[in-house]
Amino acid sequence: MVTGGSGFIGANFIRYLLEEAGFEGRIINVDKLTYAGNPDNLADIEHEYPDRYIFSQTDICDKAALENIFERYDIDAVCHFAAESHVDRSIVGPDAFIRTNIQGTFNLLELARSRGDRLSLFHHVSTDEVYGSLGADGLFTETTPYDPSSPYSASKAASDHLVRAYHRTYGLPVTVSNCSNNYGPYQFPEKLIPLIILNARSGKSLPVYGQGLNIRDWLYVADHCAAVWEIMRRGKSGETYNIGGRCEKQNIDVVRMICRLVDELAPAIKPREGLICFVKDRPGHDLRYAIDCTKLEQELNWTPRETFETGLRRTIRWYMDNTAWVERVQSGEYRRWISAHYGTSTRG
Ligand code: NAD
Ligand code: DAU
Asked: Hey, how many other C-beta atoms are within 10 angstroms of the C-beta on 307?
């Protein structure tokens, strides 16, 4: 069972399992299809693998429906991606974050536990944001104390604790991964990189929070998927693995780099950097994230394939080539959220 498989990372993960990793089993994707879940992300996979890929539109907060799925499909492993994932939304409306990220994870754990020996692994996909913010120095390790800043990261922290508690208390076989910022194909354009690519492409303003000095550690999504799969195959039960790109960048540098690449790939009269505008900062905005992923590198031999330059080029090309996906995703819910939250003028 993959939860949240119609979202950004989950869809990339299912694609990776079926097309690259040599996985030979069946996958059931359990996804509620919130604004962030998009059936287009796996439409071709559904067509190509009718016997090995099954989709169920199910809310992980609906325990009875989940129970049905566990029994009917004889689930033997869970990879849990489903979550409300956007920090800004969690600041405006935390309720769904508490429900899905905490109660939903709890439901899955209870059902996983009820399967006893029939369940070989529960892998929980989490974030480096649970560790809070770094100052100028240091890196997050697997033993850094939790110190979440936003309702999103607090809800993910709660879910991580529940997963570990189910291992210690009930012996549930679990692994946990805490990953840094992902980017790549199929990311919903509310997150920094796809938002800036699409706005730059269409000449809209490029909103940078505060002075753009916050630092994130960027990882191409396929490299995250490969790491999760290695952890599922070869990680030790009860262990946590940090995943990161060793690729720290200030937001303003990321935005400038996107501008340069968009200028190169789709030349315009004026350089896109002129579209940058500095806007009100995010409340509780963590200054810096940076992951120490030595454990994953040394124990499981994982290294990312993409550099930031190659990954960003691929990503920009993907958004330019997939205009139908972009148009569909930018209709409806997305437009309503942007105008309700920011008004129509700030972002052009
Ligand atoms: P996303 O928002 O793109 O996708 C989330 C998916 O979960 C969507 O398909 C949505 O429909 C589904 N979902 C939401 N609520 C649900 C519910 N109640 N029941 C069933 N499905 C539900 O998120 P993403 O960026 O792909 O992130 C996936 C996971 O990875 C999350 O757990 C997130 O915390 C974690 N993560 C993300 C990043 C990142 O940079 N995006 C980094 C580290 C960890
Ligand atoms: O670190 C992992 C986390 O990365 C994941 O757990 C989250 O699910 C994922 O959304 C992401 O969180 P961030 O808040 O870091 O990502 P976001 O793309 O929203 O923002 C990246 C940085 O860019 C952050 O410092 C805020 C800033 N930003 C963001 C947006 C949307 C801007 O300056 N302007 C923007 O318009």
From this structure: 12
Q: Write the DSSP string, 279-300.
A: EPPPTT---B--B--HHHHHHH
Is 31 in a helix, a strand, or coil? strand
CB-count exposure of residue 314 (10 Å: 0-12, 13-18, 19+): middle
Q: Tell the residue number behind the tokens 């693995």, with chain if given.
A: 241
**Ligand 1 contact, 188 CB (< 6 A):** yes
Domains of the chain listed by start with CATH number: 2-184+218-245+289-305 (3.40.50.720)
- 53 in active site: no
Start-to-end CA span in the chain (Å): 41
Secondary structure in 3-state letters for 242-283: EECCCCEEEHHHHHHHHHHHHHHHCCCCCCHHHHEEEECCCC
Reported residue count of the chain is 348
- The pLDDT tens digits for 90-144 are 999 999 999 999 999 999 999 999 999 999 999 999 999 999 999 999 999 999 9
Tokens of 32: 């509620």
Residues 40-86 pLDDT 10s: 999 999 999 999 999 999 999 999 999 999 999 999 999 999 999 99
Rounded Cα distance, 293 and 247, in Å: 12
Q: How is residue 174 written in tokens?
A: 């679990």
The answer to whether the pTM exceeds 0.85 is yes
Provide the pLDDT confidence category of residue 33 given band limits of 50, 70 and 90.
very high
Cα(192) to ligand 2 centroid in Å equals 6
Q: Give which of 180, 250, 252, 179 is closest to 215, Cα–Cα.
A: 250
Beta-strand relationship, 240-243 and 206-209: unpaired
Q: What is the CA radius of gyration of the chain?
A: 20
The yes-or-no answer on residue 16 being catalytic is no
Judge whether 31 counts as a catalytic residue.
Answer: no
Contact by Cβ (8 Å): 217, 248: yes
CA 96 – ligand 1 centroid, Å: 12
Residue range 142-190, pLDDT digits in tens: 999 999 999 999 999 999 999 999 999 999 999 999 999 999 999 999 9
